[in-house]
Design brief:
Blueprint (H helix, E strand, L loop, with lengths): L1 H35 L14 H8 L1 H4 L6 H12 E7 L6 H11 L4 H8 L2 E7 L5 E4 L15 H15 L21 E2 L4 E5 L9 E5 L10 H22 L5 E8 L12 E6 L5 H17 L3 H11 L3 E4 L2 E4 L10 E4 L4 H18 L5 E6 L17 E6 L12 H5 L2 E3 L3 H14 L10
Helix pairs in contact: 4-10, 8-11, 11-13
Length: 442
């Protein structure tokens, strides 16, 4: 009898173990069938050329039968990364308001007036960072009131005047007018790039990377910008890490002109290190990468760049990819995502910067970059694999309007510049610059 009970007990244990194994197998199968086996969309698939066209493709009720088959893979990956919704409404106007809207607000443009009467808004929420961005095509035509600068040409003239007027007495033009760090300065004499101590630092340890010979940010060439970020910037970060090993995760910021928060007209990048993790918004991105890998056994940044390439919102150069994101924080925002080569990443970083200045007429912008921990310390246990830079416009440098409101500060982002217009500007810049020589084509 005792032996029979022992057999029963062993049978129950065996069946329980088999049930657990079966549940695990089914779970793994579902994961594989759902996300791990998801095919990356082809970048050669027909893609939209404007956000309005993208909204047409997302409005599946009447366009599904007209979409190319390859675009279904795009939508699957889009749905994995984002919640993208298109809302549509109708506006009822009195005869008086029709005249005001058509002629005063929309300059007599019949197409814009039709869009105004039947407004559509695209709202995109990133499922892993919770960043939410809305785009209403008609907002680009909204009257912005009086500006000090009239158009890009006027803004450029006024920006150049501010830069020229700030030269006499500029602290950064001569490094002797700045303070050095306890370990001295990091310099790159070829282009007169040097580091200085930030006397009024906004974070833990903050280093200033300054191109001494270039006072006008529009004149930065590739070698100088590369030296600021890599040769000089990373060397300064390594010095800080050597003195304070718990400072491990490198990130940088670069604000241009006072409208973007720059305290000096002279171009300068600020370098910092997080303590064991990327702080702030870079930390949110790092957590998104980890969560995406845990839930989908896939690479978040690889899928993100593949999606944007397939939507016509990106270009790839070797191991780096430039994208105009679906969830930007600001207008005319550009990201560059790298993997294993700082050189490839820096080349597209330079293209993004030149696009803002040369093609989009952006003379006030903010940017930030996160870099891998392996570039500042040899302890691989810290992790930290981000190689991403983001640049975005801060609006007209002399406008009486602020580019940031409570909407952007505390809730969601609203943009008025079509992301496809920004991408078209990137492509024009790539026609001007040779990515191998980083010189303008003849």
């Amino acid at each position: 009898m005792t032996g029979f009970r022992r057999v029963q007990r062993r049978t129950r244990v065996f069946l329980l173990a088999a049930a657990v194994v079966l549940v695990l197998i089914v779970g793994l199968y579902k994961m594989s069938a759902g996300h791990e086996s998801l095919s990356l969309p082809s970048p050669n698939c027909i893609h939209p050329t404007s956000t309005v066209e993208l909204m047409d493709l997302l409005n599946t009720s009447d366009t599904a039968t007209h979409r190319p088959r390859c675009f279904e893979d795009v939508l699957k990956l889009l749905d994995l990364l984002y919640d993208a919704q298109v809302s549509q409404d109708e506006v009822t106007l009195s005869d008086k308001m029709k005249d005001t809207v058509r002629n005063d607000w929309l300059h007599g443009d019949p197409n814009l007036f039709q869009m105004f009467e039947h407004p559509r808004v695209l709202v995109v929420t990133n499922r892993f960072t919770s960043e939410t961005t809305s785009f209403n095509p008609i907002r680009a035509a909204k009257r912005e009131g009086s500006h000090v600068a009239k158009g890009q040409e006027g803004e450029l003239v006024m920006t150049l005047k501010v830069i020229e007027d700030s030269k006499p007495g500029c602290d950064f033009c001569n490094q002797d007018n700045t303070i050095s760090d306890p370990f001295g300065r990091v310099t790159w004499k070829t282009k007169d790039v040097y580091t200085a101590h930030n006397s009024f630092r906004s974070y833990d340890y903050v280093g200033l990377i300054i191109p001494g010979a270039i006072h006008n940010f529009m004149e930065l060439d590739f070698m100088t910008l590369e030296a600021m970020v890599t040769s000089v910037g990373l060397s300064w970060l390594r010095n800080i890490n050597a003195l304070h090993p718990d400072r491990t995760h490198p990130f940088m910021i670069w604000d241009v002109m006072s409208k973007a928060g720059a305290s000096q007209v002279h171009p300068h990048i600020q370098a910092m290190l997080g303590r064991g993790f990327y702080p702030g918004k870079w930390g949110i991105l790092e957590q998104a990468v980890k969560r995406y890998r845990a839930e989908n056994t896939r690479d978040y940044l690889a899928d993100l760049t593949a999606l944007h390439l397939s939507l016509g919102l990106g270009v790839q150069y070797k191991s780096a990819t430039l994208i105009v994101p679906l969830d930007p924080v600001s207008n005319k925002e550009i990201w560059v995502v790298g993997s294993d080569s700082l050189d490839h990443w820096m080349r597209l970083f330079f293209i993004a910067y030149r696009t803002l200045v040369e093609e989009l007429g952006v003379y006030c912008f903010s940017s930030s970059a996160a870099l891998p921990t392996s570039h500042v310390n040899i302890d691989s246990s810290y992790g930290g694999e981000l190689m991403v830079v983001k640049l975005g416009s801060r609006g007209d440098c002399f406008s009486s309007y602020n580019d940031v409101s409570s909407l952007q500060l505390y809730s969601v982002n609203s943009i008025s510049v079509d992301v496809y217009e920004t991408m078209a500007a990137v492509r024009r810049t790539l026609q001007v610059y040779d990515l191998e020589t980083m010189e303008k084509r003849p």
